[in-house]
């Protein structure tokens, strides 16, 4: 914390402001360049495209449909596309990208699909081969898992235009890779490429359509700030075919471990066993081998030689062994549908967001998945650790990531999107203030209006609050207060109401009152009301400017209100509402009903 009256806070704020202005300048310059560039105009969808989309074996989510429509509109315009698709793991980003790739091929162009690791590239290659199998699209792959002779052949076919789509790692960025007619570049997890790779990407991206994908959940506020200078599509809806992950919170025991692993292996699946200490990882592998001698068990950690790690992961993905004992390094983007049980040893030492992400590595197929959060036998857990584990075991539905307040994920998401150097400034001044500064800086450089909303002064003989019996944790409580205070639209308020209900259960009267006050504030904002003050049974509603005063609607309300609403002759921008005879429980309804009639 900073000392009141001291200079440290102002210094941090000034540093963050300077950093934000530089960032906004870079982003705005990039956007302006892209607006003026000329790219390829792709034709409208043909019958092949319709057939390809109809062959998708699942029901698309509304977010997927919207993202695909936005991408197609970009591709059919003369400006080169540079769109980012964000969404939690398993929310259907790959299908969205596949439809863009198919459209590019139907338009006579080649596609480069870039993945950050060999394993991910191979996985995408297999998925593409399966999805495009029935259609006349030629797909190749470039990575160090591909033999040299085959790589040479792939390069020749690319240059001759005999390959439509090539999937690969940064190998695709090397100078010997020549395309006959490249039209679309798809980048999976762009933030994970190195500086040199990014420079090469900038050269390639100058005049072709580019689609980037990120599995980092992007907070809505950051999304809104960046929309002014970057095209983004956000997938927030979980696919319909997914089951919630069944989560068990238990003491560690041989019996629990044996039953959990056997149940998964007997149904033909594989298991992640998370043990986050490298020095005892091998001992844990041997312990499991003694418990389950009939199973094949291997281990993986971040200090292994990258080639060895890649080999272990490659074998695991291809079902060559049953149980992977690993630290938390397991590739976040990797989709292994056959792994549907995760056992997290010492779950009590992880944070909420980390547990949520770890659990999200299972349950990516149509099968029911299981997560075991194990804590040491016979050890009393701290109240905080128990609460963290309880939150995760309670929130089992897909998409809970957006419901559990994860500040560290927000910072990581912003860092990934804006650049790692931004994360320090975000941490020093807080996420909300950083976004406010960014929004103002972008607005200043683009001559747009900032999203900053005017404060409305409210003083009512009616209050709402969050009792301790409803939300005990002070951090959670403060988080909900802040969210209610920052709500701007009815839709946001409805979403927040659902979030609070889902997280903490049915709302008591005091919290309902709090939401009612937020609703009144939204109405006041729409009507450009400056203040609303209640004293001794009289409520004065003051409009900011005469030009904003809804004269005709106010006259109608005065006539119909039977004396409960009146005007002041000397203050034409003020309405007076009589609230003396209105009970506390009915007051919010009374105010909402009267003010709504002015909209």
Brief summary of the model shown:
The chain has 599 residues and is α/β, with parallel strands linked by helices. Helix content is 46%, strand content 16%. The protein folds into 3 domains: 37-215, Rossmann fold (3-Layer(aba) Sandwich); 246-397, P-loop containing nucleotide triphosphate hydrolases (Rossmann fold); 457-596, Transcription-repair-coupling factor, D7 domain (Aspartate Aminotransferase, domain 1, Alpha-Beta Complex).
Major pleated sheet: 7 strands, parallel
The CATH architecture classification of the largest domain is 3-Layer(aba) Sandwich
- Assign the CATH class of the largest domain: Alpha Beta
Overall pLDDT level: 80
Number of helices: 21
Draw up the topology in text:
Blueprint: H1 8-36, H2 47-54, H3 62-75, E1 82-87, H4 93-106, E2 110-114, H5 118-132, E3 139-142, H6 148-160, E4 165-168, E5 182-188, H7 195-205, E6 209-214, H8 220-226, E7 231-235, E8 246-251, H9 254-266, E9 270-274, H10 281-291, E10 297-300, H11 306-317, E11 323-326, E12 339-344, H12 352-359, E13 370-375, H13 383-394, H14 407-418, H15 420-429, H16 431-446, E14 457-459, H17 474-486, H18 490-504, H19 509-526, E15 529-535, E16 538-543, H20 551-560, E17 565-568, E18 571-578, H21 584-596
Parallel strand pairs: 1-6, 1-7, 2-4, 2-5, 3-4, 5-6, 8-13, 9-11, 9-12, 10-11, 12-13, 14-15
Antiparallel strand pairs: 15-16, 16-18, 17-18
Helix pairs in contact: 1-15, 1-16, 2-4, 3-4, 8-16, 14-15, 15-16, 19-21
